[in-house]
Amino acid sequence: MSRCLLLPLFALWLSLSGLAGAADGAAFSAQQQAWLAEHRQLQVGVILQAPYAQLERRQQRLSGANAQLMERLAQLMGVELRWHYFSTQDDLQRALREKRVDLAPGLSQTPAGLRLWNFSDPYMRVAHLLLGRREGTGSVDMDDLAHGTLVAAHGSATVLDYLLTSYPHLRLEESPTASQALHAVLGQQARYAVVGEAQVSRLSRDPEFAELAIVGDIGFPLLLRVGTRKDWPELAEIVDVALHAIPARELDLLHQRWLQIAYPMPSAAQDLLRNLCLLFGVLLLVSGMLLVSLRRQRDELQNGLLAARQEIEAREVSRDALRLSQFSLDNSTLGILWVNWDSHIGYANRAVEQMLGYAQGALVDRPLIDLEPRLHMDRWLELWRNVRQEDEREMQFETECLRADGSLLPVDVSLSFMRYRKTEYLVVFVTDVTERRRALAALQESQARLQGIAANVPGMVFRLERETPAELPKFAFISEGSESLAGYSPATLLSGQRGIFSLVHEADQADYLISRDRALAHDRDWQWQGRILTRGGELRWADIKATARKLDSGTVVWDGIVWDISENKRNELALVESRLQLRELAAHLESVREEEKAHIAREVHDELGQVLTVLKLETSMCELSYAYLDPGLQGRLGNMKKLIAQLFQLVRDVATALRPPILDAGIASAIEWQARRFEARTQIPCLVDVPENLPPLPDAKAIGLFRVLQEALTNVMRHARAHTVELRLALEDGMLCLSISDDGQGFDPAAVGTSSFGLVGMRERVMILGGSLEIESRAGVGTLLCVKLALDE
């Protein structure tokens, strides 16, 4: 009884909280307000599908989750909405192309949709649930199901692909409707059914499905977004601002109102049977009570009082433990945040508020992007998914948070997943590491000094000093190593300020002075390599390394060392010559291989194509002349024609793999062709930007650039886990620049080194063509690969 009273009170509290949050307006910029003033009426397209949107015929009024959300956005933006109803997604997209629709709610981001819509951040998370017969109170983990368990699934192609990829040990059977999937479970044709949360909320009120229950979640939610016209980027920004102005509690209330799952009452026969059983039990209870003695009644009353007293004491202990836990959280020195799936903060203790300079309670309902500007919604959802799957790489990392006064605070962040009742949270533990960074910087500086001293012991050690910027530097010290290096004593080099310059070869003196003066002008470290002459006239290679340091008196000193690197230099020059010869040989072999591929492709296409054409004509002639004589002969000739057609396609595929004919149309067309093939094979959107009028490119460079593109897209498909890929070809200062970027998981190029033959092969191919290749990537932020080639030979 108490639970039935608490539920309405909780719903009323959520409603009042949502109304309180609704009073806050959206913070539009002056430019956005001007745009809204010019567009007071917007065309809204909505697909009629319960419970998202449904038209009440009698009242001619639109209701549903998406309709209520759009009315709330219209209130925040101060615009009038004109509704257009559609039955399918194709009708809605056709209206968008005809510009009869400006925005539409309830869309999910797809590769095809990115070409038509600008998508907002998700405002509602609709789960895909696992339903089965009521067999207990525990949940079902799909990874633990027996091999070959039959599951009826209803959903989009993306959901089915996720189920096939994540749970290959299950037998999936696609159902056209959610009702048929549930009937398959009732009819024992399937053990479980996968149905969206919206369909479950609609079908759960049907008594026919009273025997079914929700037993799990597949972990692949549908994220609903608001789509806007592609040619109105201002409207997309305004919708994002308005969505962020809606409190998280109001969106949760919207979800609970329209996607609430209600379980139907049993049938009339079950009600009658239950009432009869209750009546019979009451009669038995009354009979038993009449037969029990007064002493037994007194004992039972005493036992009841004792049990009630113990229960009250247990509740007091639990309440005290809860108060102690809450006090520990609020007064912990470790910052603690509870964050909802939409990145809004649900709880923040006092430690994190003081750490970031916010007043008490000011962090609640704020999105995490206010504290970490680089944490956009897609990156947050990726973090949520990785931590939910217990990916250890994402559990702990170091970053910088934006404080209330605008300063940056270095922190150590630890993430943990928590499920409380029916709500999921990501618990964020924040630790201030300012002092640790200072100590680390001091330690690194001390280690650098010690390392400089230890590394510069061999050779000729020297000190160069300059008291003021206007004075010339003077050698204050030269070690005894000058005897073995150049044959001069330290006193000889210090007399008359001869210094190191007197040892430098005449051809390298200008470079020596440039490097020294550059270091002196900016008070920075000095490094130089060049030739010197010993006292006996012997030519040697020397390496100078000096560390700049400014003393408290203002004097700048350079402590350094000069060592003999003649042997290393000779080996280096020999190695450079050897590498140059190997690279020329590789270039020749690559050219020969590409020519051989082109020759084989032409031979395969022309010679085999002619033979297959003649064979197909001869088969057709045999069919016309003799097929009527024997019905079996006609079937065999038909099979032969099918095999010939398959062989035609195989010949085309082999010729295309050896050398795509699209290269003859230019590198720009080849890039667009390869992008479309990649998009069709991986379902990853590939955005291409190439110039229309591109100067002709030599065949060797066009082939090399195309092979680099193929290898880069192969790496994206295998390792990046990207959502989108962008290809851009441009002319910059006489150079042809090809950039390939993705928003995948990224990597550390320094850690990969030469272990990746794909990267090494691309780099060598570009160097053979006389160009350069640059790779920029970090874990979690994607990868950018840029190739630059000269247009001329």
CATH topology heading of the largest domain: D-Maltodextrin-Binding Protein, domain 2
| Biggest beta sheet summary | 5 strands, mixed
CATH class call of the largest domain: Alpha Beta
Strand content: 15-25%
Number of helices: 23
Number of strands: 28
**Class from secondary-structure proportions:** alpha+beta
Mean pLDDT: 79
Based on CA inertia axes, which overall geometry fits?
extended
GO molecular function, one term: phosphorelay sensor kinase activity
InterPro entries: HATPase_C_sf, HATPase_dom, His_kinase_dom, PAC, PAS, PAS-assoc_C, PAS-like_dom_sf, PAS_fold_3
Pfam families: HATPase_c (PF02518), HisKA_3 (PF07730), PAS_3 (PF08447), PAS_9 (PF13426), SBP_bac_3 (PF00497)
GO cellular component, one term: membrane
Structure in words:
The chain has 793 residues and is of the alpha+beta class. It folds into 7 domains: 16-124 and 225-258, D-Maltodextrin-Binding Protein, domain 2 (3-Layer(aba) Sandwich), CATH 3.40.190.10; 128-220, D-Maltodextrin-Binding Protein, domain 2 (3-Layer(aba) Sandwich); 296-325; 331-432, Beta-Lactamase, CATH 3.30.450; 438-564, PAS domain (Beta-Lactamase), CATH 3.30.450.20; 571-658; 664-790, 2-Layer Sandwich (Heat Shock Protein 90). 47% of the residues lie in helices and 23% in strands. It has 23 helices and 28 strands. The protein has a 5-stranded mixed beta sheet, sandwiched between helices. α18 (566-626) runs antiparallel to α19 and α18 (566-626) crosses α23 (757-768). The longest helix has 61 residues, at 566-626. The chain is extended.
